[in-house]
Inverse folding.
């Protein structure tokens, strides 16, 4: 099985620093592509981080006050098939 990175999307969040507020999934959870995995925010905007692929969540960075940027890897999914 291949490991797929969970990245902060650049298209939706641009160059602004993003806060990873909380995970909506846990390690070991099965997810489908497009499922909401986490809540992200920048001042004035809150949105979801979508699963890039279907599979099992195998690694997550801790939600914290750290600022993340577009394309930063915040976790991994082990893809099905």
């Amino acid at each position: 099985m291949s490991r797929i990175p969970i990245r902060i999307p650049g298209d939706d969040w641009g160059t602004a620093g993003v806060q990873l507020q909380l995970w909506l999934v846990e390690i070991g959870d099965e997810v489908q592509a497009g499922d909401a995995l986490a809540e992200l925010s920048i001042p004035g905007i809150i949105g979801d981080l979508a699963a890039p692929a279907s599979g099992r969540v195998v690694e997550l960075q801790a939600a914290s006050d750290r600022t993340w940027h577009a394309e930063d890897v915040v976790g991994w999914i082990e893809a099905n098939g």
